[in-house]
Structures are given as structure tokens and as C-alpha cells.
Write a structure and sequence with these properties.
By secondary structure, this protein is an alpha+beta fold. It is globular, with a radius of gyration of 39 Å. Strand 1 and strand 2 form a beta hairpin. It starts with 16 loop residues before the first helix and ends with a strand. The strands form four sheets. It has an eight-stranded mixed beta sheet with strand order 5-4-3-6-2-1-7-8, with helices on both faces. The chain has a seven-stranded mixed beta sheet with strand order 11-10-9-12-15-13-14, covered by helices on one side. A five-stranded mixed beta sheet has the order 17-19-20-22-21. The chain contains 29 helices and 23 strands.
């Protein structure tokens, strides 16, 4: 007998933890969660979006925007409904919700991105407002959905409408109370649902306790806290801070002025997860801990180019979507202190891309061909076409057409066409921005472009053959521009960890890999003929530049030396003549008109000579004797200029007082006299230019005649040697080689001359430009050698410090082992005192050791003062120096490594003690001026010519100075973004006629 089959139709049932799986369970990390929520803001036509983090007992955050917002019904029916149709249909929003902004393609696909908030914090307060509607709010504790015994409909989300944001703190408290109803804390027999709910939480807590006990080790000190207790604890402890609304109010005010209405959405994150909590306040974690560094770098690296920077408008006001991440201190509404972690302007944009020496720009069409342009070593190749297809691909790829940009640079400066300054900047940019990012309709697709992502296997190929496979993630700036319409088969994984692995994704990967290999073989890699040709040309050009540079340096030195030698005595005579005139005019004399004219002529004569006696440009490196001669000449010239100016002012006063002419006549007379002098000066220069051009013309005509004969001279012997049996190919190659060599040589020679003339035509001072370039080159070369010496010095110090420490302990033990009678002797006491002083020096120097970990601490002005007194107390007394420190400095606090901060003060005061020795009134002062630390001394001020080089390594004007102290001070401070400089503004000076050094400490506070 056949049994009857049971048959029925059933529906899927969703447990509450489905939300937990779709939210936290589908998101890789915090940056990805933030990215998903920012995409929702973009879809809502927000102009601004931000993640703000707030330090408090319960760490909070807010993702705020000024998009179209939602009504109360939309919040309930759309935001609190999973997989809404608005995402799947990808239709444009109504016109009134687009605010006249350019159309945006909807980024979300599944309608679950909003659940990312569960990854960032356990509780979310969503507040939203659509134009012409009231504010709406909902409070969600995502931990409610972790209960395995609850179905989705068992969890109730409290919601409310309200009129103004001022009502939100009180309303939040009410929503918190309503939310606790989900725990059924007071179940009733008359309410069976509450009994079931209570039983579900009791069973879930029992399960949690059982799991906790099974994992708990004997040594574990952690205490079991159930999910239910965690929910109740946050609910009891948290009260909404109205200041969390400040930033959002500013956003809403912005759109109110633009759209005549407020609209937007804010997601307040209550009880941040560990990553965001540490960013807000690191607590006991060290500032430089690996975990904290990794969290910040991951967040910034993921969200930095959130919007495709290569499509960005030139002007900031034209940017239609801005984003930022900030963290705010406790009571920021009083202190106004916050740190910017990320800003939308911090990107590598198209303007930066266009400055690179290597560029690839175009698109790969739907058939798998690259079409565009290539720039290699600054040379453009237009209308480039490269097949990127792999065997077996269909005629039309599954990927579809997409845009492609790739920029790169030569890591070795010797092979780069960039200047040293440009190259240095690009190296810095590569550290922050390098990699190939992918965007879809202008928004970034994760995780492509992250430092830990090598989707196109660039590093893997480079590891097999670095010469051929030229590309490396650390030196490329790339971007792939996708569009939903053209590349719809490229779909994101559920957790936003890249594209689903399908045919379209595999073809995208193959197309890019093939293109990179072809580009390297044709233009950039070891197999490229073009690369070797360009490098050879670059090497020759740099050799010629060095040769010209050396010749220019020699010419400049000769000109400088001869000018000083020829003009020094003449300048001295004119200074004496001007002094005599100045003394004569200082006696308040009354003179006749003839005497006045005579004095004016004397001054005009000296003035005409003054322009010929101007201070010559100083070469980069001069001897000490020449340096002193130059400074003496410079000071004499400045004195002559000032004397002439004073004399003219006195003569003008005498003329006005004597009333020899009417005011109009006096003014006309002065005008004509000045015009005549200037005309005479210009005519003299014009004649010199004409004569110089005539000589140049003759020189270059002679040179051109010789150059025209050069080819004949080198190639004619080859032509004469040709017979019927000669190797034609070899002969032609030889003639080509001579032609190419001469063509390159002539091009460099004549182009250089024409470019120099062009610069002169545009008013560029070539003499000054040559001087600056030569000075920078000489300084760079010197600095490299000096840094090597400094490195050796540091190693020597570390070894010496270790040995001194050992010897110190040995001496201390030996002295203490001596008999009591010996210890009572005066000699012993003096030895013990000297040894104690030595020990204090050694203790001070111990933090300067290079090796080992060094933690950051609160460093107070009082602590710095103690170290200064340890080091210099005796010298202050011996040199009779008055040392004064203000109370505000003693109360100063900066957080940093002691070995970075304290030696700065020691170095500056050590220098000050030398220079105050040259003054009668010997003072050293430290004070706070406008949040800047000023260290001043009453010694002579720094010579104006020395100020720019004051902080250079091994640069010193002291006879026994080594030029290391100030250099190390600046470099060490710069590591922590502090600054030090020599004060030139009177507002920054403590001692007006002395030397004043200013330190700007990042994050410095003055304790009350």
C-alpha cells in the first residue's frame, strides 16, 4: 500500500541575527563600513559628508551629510527595510531631491549598506530631515539582533518625529527607554509575548555564559558581561551631548542658503568599536604603537581618494562632493581643539599626474585594444594602439570599455628627467598616493589601490624579472574608470572585498596585465629600445649640464673676486666722501643757491658711481678670507646707500627752507634731474648691450661656420674610402652615427643659447639663477658628505656612552670603597663633587642614544629648566650670565620623546653662552610669546647673510663650532612636526638687539 505524500508551500523565516550577518558579518573592516555609508550620502546628493569622532566616557561618532534626507514614512518604509527597490532599480531621484547638481549614478545595489553602522558601533541614532518635512529619528541597538532565539519581527525600533534639533537630547533619552522594551525586563502574565521575549533573553544569556566559561582560562581576569547587561549599561550611562550637533548644523545651514531648505541625515554612533575608539583617544596605547599606526593608515589609505581625483574640477568651489574625517577633544566646544585625519583635498590629482615624466592615458575599448597617448621620459607618443587581449577572448570582452591612466617616475634621480626638487616631491607623493585605484562612476571601488592589494600582480611579476617588468606599486599612480552602464558585469562581492570572480573580472585582470607588459617592453622596461636611447640622451645632456655648470661656477668666481678687488678701494673712497657731505649738512647750515647746486652735483656724482659699485652675487663656496671681504664690502655699500639717502633728505629740507624756488619749480627741477640721471644710466647700459650683442653675433657666426664644416670633416674620409667591394650597410651606419652625434650636439648647443636669450627676453636674471642653482648643488653635495660624518659621529657616541657608563659605575664603587679617613680629606671631597657632576652629565646624555625604544611623555617647562641647570649652572656663574625663565614657560607642557625636546634647549643655550660672552650685559631669557617658545640672548644678532644657512649641517660662524647642534635641533623637531627658526620680526623677540630663537611646539599647552 502506497502512503500518501505530504505536500505544502512554505516561506523562508528570518531570525533576528540575519541583520547581524548582513551588517557586521559582511563588512571587512571599519574603513569599508565608512565607505558604504558615504556612498549612501553620495546617492542622496549630499554636497558634504563627514565622519566626526568625539572623545568622552562613552566614545561616540557621527556620519553626517546634507543630502536629500528622508521623511518619517521613508525612514520606516525604506531605511528600516532591507533590500529596498530604490537601490535595485537605480533610478534617478526626483528632480527636487537633486538640487541642480550633476546626475549621480546610484552606487548601492542590495539595499544593505546602511547596516554597516553595526560594524562601527553597537548603537545607532539616525536623525534625518527632508526639505519641507519635520525631523525624524530612530534608535537602533544592533546587539538586539545577536539573540539567536528572536525572529526579525520580535525586535522593535523606536522612532519619533520632532521639530527642532534642540529637542534631540531629551528625545534620545525617551527613545532609549522605549528601546529597553525589547528586553522585556518586566514581563507580565497578561502579555504572553513579553514572557516569550524574556525567556529568549534568559536562554541567550545562558548560552553566552556557557561559551564564555568554555573559553576562559584560569589566568584570565576578564569578567562575564552578557549582551543584555551591555545594552542596559550603555542605556543607563549615555546621555546625548547637544554639541555633537554643531558640525551637522553648519552643514544644514550651508544647504539652507543654497536650496532655501534644510535637509540631510546624521548617523550618531554610540559606543565606538575598538578601531574608531583608539583613533578618538588612544588611552594607554603608545602613540607610535603598530596597532594605532595601522588603524590610521588603513582608514586614510582606503578613503583618501573616495571620489576619483583625476576627474576633479580645477577650482575648489566647483567640487560638488566633499568629505572629511576629524576627531574632537573632550569639551571641544570650549577648547576648539580637533585633529583632521582626512581631507578631500589631500589627493594626487590630474594636475600632479600631468607633471610626471612617464604617462599613459587613454582607454581600453570593448574589443580589448588600448588607444591613447604615452609619454616616456618627457617625450610624447600620440595615437598609440596596443592589443591587450589574451588568447581565447571573444571578439567583444565581457569587461566592456573603460578609461585608463597610469603615471610613473624613475626612482633613481640620475635616470630621471625631473629636477632634484621635483623628484623629491614625487617621492613623498608616492609614499602617500601610489598604486592603481578603480572607480565606478567616480566613486572608489574597494579594496583596489590599497597598499596591501596587488590585484594586477605587479609585484609578483616584478619579483621574477625587475628589469623587464618595470612597474612597481611604490612608483606608479594609476586609475581605472568604470561605468555601471558599460561595465555592469563587474559586480562587487557582498563584503565589498573586490569584484566577484567571474569572466568579466578575469578579463579585466588579463587586459591590464597584458597592457602593462606591452608598455614596459615598448617604452619603459629593460627590453625597450626607447628606454636605452632616452637614458643615453639624458646622460649626455646631464654631462653637458655639469660641464656648463662648472664653467659657470668658475666664471662667477672670477667675476666675484675681480669685482671685490677692483671696487673695494673706490667704494671706500665714496663712503668717506659721503660721510664728509653728511657731516657738512648736519650743522644746520644756511647756504646759497650756487652752494646748493654744487652739493647736489657732488651727491649725483657719487650716486652715479654707486650703481657701478653694487654688491656682486656671492658664489656658493668661498674661502673665509673672501667671505670676510664680501661682508665688509656689503656693509660699506649699505652704509653708502643710507648716507646718500640721508644727504638727499637734508638737501631737500634746506631747499624747502631757503625758498629758492616755488614749490612747482622745485618739484619740476627734481623731476628733470632724476629723469636725466636715469636716462643717462639706461643709455650707458644700452650701449653696452649693443656692443655685447655685436660680439656675440660674431662669435656665433664663426662657430656656425665651423659647425657646418664638422660633418664634412668627419664623414668625407669615410666617403672617400668607399669602393665597389665596401660593406654598404656598415658605411651607411657609420655616416648615420656621425650625423646623429653632431645633430644632438648642435641641438643642445644652439637650443641652450636660444633658451638663454628667451629667458633674458622674459626678464629672467640668469646670473642670480645660476648662482642659486650652483649654491643648491654645492650645498646638497656637501650635505651628503656631512650626513655620512654625522652618522659615524652618532655611532661613536653610542659606543662611547656605553663605555662611559660602565666606567662611571666602576669609579663610583672605587671611591666609596675608600677608608673613612680618606673620605674626610678635602681632595676626596673635590673628586667626589666633580664625579657627581660628571654623572649628572652622563644621565642627561643617556636619552640621546640612538638604539632602543623611546616612549613619549609629558615634558614640562619645569623639567626642561632642571636639565638646563644641571648642564649649565656652573657656566652661568663663571661667565656671569643672568638666566631668566618666565612662569608661563615653566607651566608649558608638550607630549613627546624627551631625547628629542631637551637637547634642543641645551644646543640653543650652549650657542647662546658663546655669543653673550661678546657682550657686556650678559642675559639669556626663555618665555612664551603668542604660544611660541622664545629663547633669547643679549649677544650680537645673527648676520643677515647667515640666517638662511643657520640650521644647515656643519655650518657655524664660531671659531670652535661644529655646526651640528642647530641642525639636529631642527631635524629632530621636524620629525614630530615642531618647528624652530630665527626671529626676524620684532613681535617674536624678547631681546630686541640680541639673538632670538623661536620654537613652535605642536600641541603645546600651558597648565593653569
Amino acid at each position: 500500500m502506497t502512503s500518501k505524500l505530504d505536500r505544502k508551500s512554505v516561506s523562508f523565516k528570518a531570525q533576528a541575527r540575519t541583520i547581524d550577518h548582513l551588517g557586521k558579518g559582511q563588512i571587512a573592516d571599519a574603513p569599508t563600513a565608512v565607505s558604504e555609508l558615504w556612498k549612501n550620502s553620495y546617492d542622496a546628493y549630499a554636497r558634504d559628508v563627514a565622519l566626526h569622532l568625539y572623545d568622552a566616557d562613552i566614545k561616540c561618532g557621527a556620519i553626517i551629510d546634507n543630502g536629500c534626507g528622508m521623511t518619517f514614512d521613508q525612514l520606516s518604509d525604506s531605511w528600516l527595510t532591507i533590500g529596498t527597490a530604490s537601490k535595485t532599480t537605480k533610478k534617478l531621484l526626483p528632480e527636487e531631491d537633486r538640487f541642480d547638481l550633476p546626475d549621480r549614478s546610484t552606487q548601492g545595489e542590495k539595499g544593505i549598506g546602511r547596516l554597516s553602522t553595526a560594524f562601527l558601533a553597537p548603537v545607532t541614532l539616525i536623525v534625518t530631515k527632508k526639505r519641507d518635512s519635520r525631523f525624524s529619528a530612530a534608535l537602533i541597538d544592533w546587539r538586539l539582533f545577536e539573540n539567536t532565539y528572536l525572529s526579525l519581527q520580535d525586535v522593535k525600533v523606536p522612532m519619533s518625529e520632532f521639530d527642532t534639533l534642540d529637542q534631540l537630547p531629551e528625545l534620545c533619552s525617551e527613545l532609549q527607554s522605549d528601546m529597553l522594551a525589547n528586553l522585556a525586563l518586566d514581563p507580565s502574565e497578561s502579555d504572553p509575548d513579553s514572557l516569550l521575549l524574556r525567556r529568549a533573553w534568559d536562554k541567550f544569556t545562558e548560552d553566552e555564559k556557557e561559551i564564555f566559561d568554555s573559553h576562559k582560562s584560569d589566568k584570565s581576569a576578564s569578567e562575564f558581561i552578557s549582551t543584555e547587561d551591555q545594552i542596559k549599561l550603555l542605556n543607563k550611562s549615555f546621555s546625548f551631548n547637544t554639541h555633537y550637533l554643531d558640525s551637522w548644523k553648519e552643514m544644514l545651514e550651508k544647504v539652507e542658503s543654497l536650496d532655501d531648505a534644510t535637509h540631510g541625515t546624521a548617523l550618531f554612533l554610540l559606543g565606538l568599536n575598538r578601531d574608531l575608539k583608539l583613533l578618538t583617544n588612544r588611552g594607554d596605547l603608545d602613540r607610535e604603537s603598530d596597532e594605532l599606526t595601522a588603524i590610521k593608515e588603513n582608514l586614510v589609505d582606503t578613503l583618501r581618494a573616495f571620489v576619483n581625483p583625476f576627474d576633479r574640477e580645477d577650482k575648489d568651489e566647483n567640487i560638488t562632493f566633499r568629505y572629511e574625517i576629524k576627531k574632537f577633544d573632550r569639551e571641544f566646544w570650549h577648547t576648539e581643539k580637533y585633529d583632521t585625519i582626512l581631507d578631500y583635498r589631500d589627493v594626487f590629482d590630474y594636475e600632479d599626474f600631468c607633471k610626471l615624466e612617464h604617462q599613459v592615458e587613454g582607454f581600453i575599448d570593448e574589443k580589448g585594444w588600448f588607444r591613447g597617448r604615452v609619454k616616456a621620459f618627457g617625450i610624447d607618443f600620440l595615437n598609440v594602439e596596443i592589443p591587450c587581449r589574451s588568447p581565447g577572448m571573444a571578439a567583444y570582452t565581457q569587461t566592456g570599455a573603460f578609461g585608463f591612466k597610469l603615471g610613473a617616475f624613475e626612482v633613481m634621480l640620475s635616470k630621471s628627467t625631473h629636477s632634484p626638487e621635483e623628484h623629491s616631491l614625487i617621492i613623498e607623493q608616492a609614499y602617500k598616493y601610489s598604486g592603481i585605484t578603480i572607480s565606478r562612476d567616480s566613486l572608489r571601488v574597494l579594496p583596489y589601490g590599497r597598499v596591501d592589494n596587488d590585484f594586477f600582480e605587479i609585484e609578483e611579476r616584478r619579483g621574477t624579472n625587475a628589469g623587464r617588468h618595470y612597474w612597481a606599486n611604490r612608483k606608479i599612480f594609476g586609475h581605472i574608470a568604470l561605468h555601471q552602464e558599460d561595465n555592469y558585469r563587474l559586480k562587487d562581492k557582498a563584503g565589498r572585498e573586490g569584484f566577484i570572480s567571474n569572466q568579466a573580472t578575469r578579463e579585466l585582470k588579463s587586459l591590464i596585465k597584458n597592457l602593462l607588459v606591452s608598455l614596459a617592453d615598448r617604452y619603459f622596461g629593460r627590453n625597450s629600445d626607447n628606454r636605452q636611447v632616452m637614458l643615453d640622451a639624458l646622460s649626455k645632456a646631464k654631462q653637458k649640464q655639469k660641464k656648463a655648470q662648472k664653467a659657470s661656477a668658475k666664471t662667477n668666481m672670477r667675476s666675484f673676486t675681480s669685482t671685490l678687488k677692483k671696487n673695494e678701494s673706490v667704494l671706500s673712497e665714496q663712503v668717506e666722501e659721503a660721510k664728509s657731505l653728511h657731516d657738512e649738512l648736519s650743522n644746520d647750515i644756511t647756504i646759497s643757491l650756487n652752494q646748493l647746486d654744487h652739493l647736489v652735483k657732488k651727491i649725483d656724482k657719487i650716486e652715479s658711481l654707486r650703481t657701478d659699485l653694487k654688491v656682486p652675487n656671492k658664489p656658493a663656496k668661498v674661502t673665509d678670507t673672501l667671505e670676510e671681504q664680501y661682508r665688509s664690502y656689503r656693509d660699506m655699500f649699505a652704509e653708502l646707500t643710507e648716507l646718500l639717502q640721508t644727504c638727499r633728505e637734508k638737501l631737500n629740507k634746506i631747499e624747502a627752507k631757503g625758498q629758492y624756488f616755488s614749490p612747482i619749480q622745485s618739484a619740476e627741477k627734481k623731476y628733470k634731474s632724476s629723469e636725466s640721471s636715469l636716462t643717462k644710466q639706461i643709455n650707458s647700459y644700452t650701449n653696452n648691450i649693443d656692443n655685447t650683442f655685436e660680439r656675440l653675433k660674431n662669435v656665433w657666426l664663426t662657430q656656425s661656420r665651423e659647425d657646418k664644416k664638422a660633418f664634412e670633416k668627419e664623414a668625407l674620409p669615410i666617403l672617400d674610402a668607399v669602393t665597389e667591394s665596401s660593406d654598404v650597410a656598415s658605411v651607411l651606419n657609420s655616416i648615420d652615427a656621425i650625423y646623429i652625434t653632431l645633430a644632438d650636439e648642435f641641438s643642445y648647443k644652439y637650443d641652450a643659447f636660444l633658451q638663454a636669450l628667451d629667458k633674458l627676453e622674459n626678464g629672467i636674471d640668469l646670473d642670480s639663477a645660476f648662482m642659486i642653482a650652483e649654491e643648491e648643488r654645492a650645498n646638497a653635495k656637501q650635505e651628503i658628505n656631512q650626513i655620512r660624518s654625522l652618522a659615524q659621529l652618532g655611532i661613536s657616541f653610542e659606543v662611547l656612552a656605553h663605555e662611559l657608563n660602565a666606567q662611571d659605575q666602576s669609579v663610583t664603587r672605587s671611591l666609596k670603597s675608600m677608608s673613612s679617613s680618606a673620605q674626610s680629606e678635602i681632595g676626596f671631597k673635590n673628586a667626589m663633587k666633580a664625579h657627581k657632576q660628571f654623572t649628572e652629565y652622563l644621565r642627561f646624555l643617556s636619552p640621546l642614544k640612538l638604539s632602543g625604544y623611546q616612549s613619549r611623555d609629558d615634558i614640562t617647562g619645569t623639567e626642561i629648566l632642571k636639565n638646563i641647570e644641571v648642564f649649565f649652572r656652573d657656566r652661568f656663574e663663571r661667565q656671569n650670565v643672568e638666566f631668566k625663565v618666565s612662569q608661563s614657560f615653566e607651566k608649558m607642557v608638550v607630549v613627546d620623546v624627551k631625547s628629542r625636546i631637551i637637547p634642543v634647549f641645551v644646543n640653543v643655550i650652549n650657542n647662546a653662552l658663546y655669543w653673550v660672552g661678546l657682550a657686556e650685559d650678559r642675559k639669556i631669557e626663555i618665555d612664551i610669546v603668542d604660544d611660541l617658545v622664545v629663547i633669547a640672548n643679549s649677544g650680537p644678532p645673527v648676520d643677515p647673510d647667515d640666517i638662511d644657512r643657520l640650521f644647515e649641517l656643519f655650518y657655524s660662524r664660531r671659531s670652535s663650532g661644529n655646526g651640528v647642534g642647530l641642525y639636529l635641533s631642527r631635524e629632530n623637531l621636524a620629525v614630530a612636526h615642531h618647528k624652530i627658526w630665527y626671529a626676524q620680526n620684532n613681535e617674536e623677540k624678547l631681546i630686541k638687539d640680541g639673538a632670538n630663537f623661536v620654537i613652535q611646539f605642536r600641541g603645546m599647552e600651558i597648565k593653569k
